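Deliverable D5.2: sample structural annotation.
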Amino acid sequence: VVNSDHLIDGSRIEKDDVLLGLPSTGLHTNGYSLARKVLLDMAHVSLTEYVPELRSSWGDALLAVHRSYKTAIESVRRLPGLTGISHITGGGLVGNTLRLLRPGQALEIDWQSWSWPSVFSKIQQLGGVDTEEMRRVFNLGIGLVLLAHAADVRTITSALKQIGETAIPIGRVIAAS
């Protein structure tokens, strides 16, 4: 049973809340169908081939262990101002985070605020995959999104930094048009 004061269900998300992205370690659990199509069916890569940009073989890059966000979530879940948590799985960054918002709310993502890990850039390049499709399918290097009131971002990022976690401001909640 969760105390209702500690429930993070998105109901407190407001316009101008900040989206804080926590890095992923690779594909995690999404995009394998598209990756397989591009790499095996279109580009005919060998999964054992070492790829300098990846610093690993294709197989190792695709099977990078899905990191746990448990410690990060535990470090911030009771802090004031945390209004939502979105685990980026199938549906990409926008699809997963939109599920938290209420009618009348939308997301404004600053796609330039972080660099895609090489595995995503290589898949896009080899398959000629449209950027919008990449955004819809993959996590693109952000595995978890925390939503927070702007006034509380510093407290939340400080708590994350204390445990060695990086939080990247990647956007905000806006009024839907």
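Annotation notes: Residues 24 and 141 are 5 Å apart (CA to CA). The helical segments are 32-42, 58-62, 70-76, 92-98, 118-127, 131-137, 153-162.
The annotation will be released with the project's public dataset once the embargo ends.
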